[in-house]
Structure formats: structure tokens, C-alpha cells
Amino acid sequence: MDDHALLDPRELSRLRWRCRRGLLENDLFIERFFARYGHALTVRQARGLAALMDLADNDLLDLLLRRREPEGELARPEVLEVLAQLRTPSSTSDPPPVPPTKDCP
Predict the structure, then answer these.
(1) Of 66, 57, 103, nearest in space to 87 by CA
(2) What's the CA gap between 55 and 93, in Å, rounded?
């Protein structure tokens, strides 16, 4: 399949379902991503997003908040592209993301 082909609606729906996370903070980034880019998501971008969804919630949050950068196998062009899109700050029309909570002692 062509990397630049748009994801068909059924595959997009499956990917959205797979992107549901256990941390609200991650869900906010992901929902904003789908609101902005979901209508034009390519097969290549879907592959990059799927690779990010293989991460544990806290590892994904560290990437989204720029606490660390992808390394090794994860530092592929399609992953870096989607990560940049996920990290794009909110515009005035987007709801603000909820800041991460600190663990209570």
C-alpha cells in the first residue's frame, strides 16, 4: 500500500480505538491530534502513531512533554513526524491540555 495514501475510514476507526490510553494527559494529546489530522491521516502516519502506541503510558507522556526523545528503533521518520504533530501547541480554538499530575506521597 502507498505510504501517502489516506487511511480508509475503517482503519482510522481501528487506530482511534487502539490509541485510547490509561492516562488522561496522553488522551488529550491524542484527541487533539485526531481532531487536527484525522481527516488526512496517511498510512505512513498511522504506522508512526501505532509505533508510539506500543509504548507504556509514562514513556509516551515523556515523549509528548519533551522529557526525552525517541531512540533506536523508535527514531524512525514516520514516528518523528507524528510525534511533532502530537507536540504541536494548542491554538486558541483548541482546549488547553491538562497539566500532568504529580504523584502524591
Answers:
(1) 66
(2) 29
